[in-house]
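Usage

Read records sequentially. Each one opens with the input sequence:
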Amino acid sequence: MILPISIKEKFFKGHPFVMEKARGSNALKTSYTEDDQLYKSIDNARSELELAVLTFNELTDDKAIDYASYNLLAARAKYSYLIKLAKEKKLSL
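and closes with the structure output:
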């Protein structure tokens, strides 16, 4: 049975230990904490944002610039959301 993916899971996409924990598998036995997962997600989001900025700055074609600007806005929103989660948990960044 395939479980639906929540919005939070989409933000943590790419981190198998997060997905397994969210779905309730044996990942709970690992040493990864929720805070560790959030730190890793923030690091990845920061990398995605930096790549989006670099990509946007390199393009000259109008259609490609439109795509890159949407990608940049999405990366910035994801990073901001994860930072907000960390601040709510009073984590040091």
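Summary fields computed downstream for this record:
- Confidence is low (pLDDT under 50) at residues 16-21.
- Residues 84 and 90 are 10 Å apart (CA to CA).
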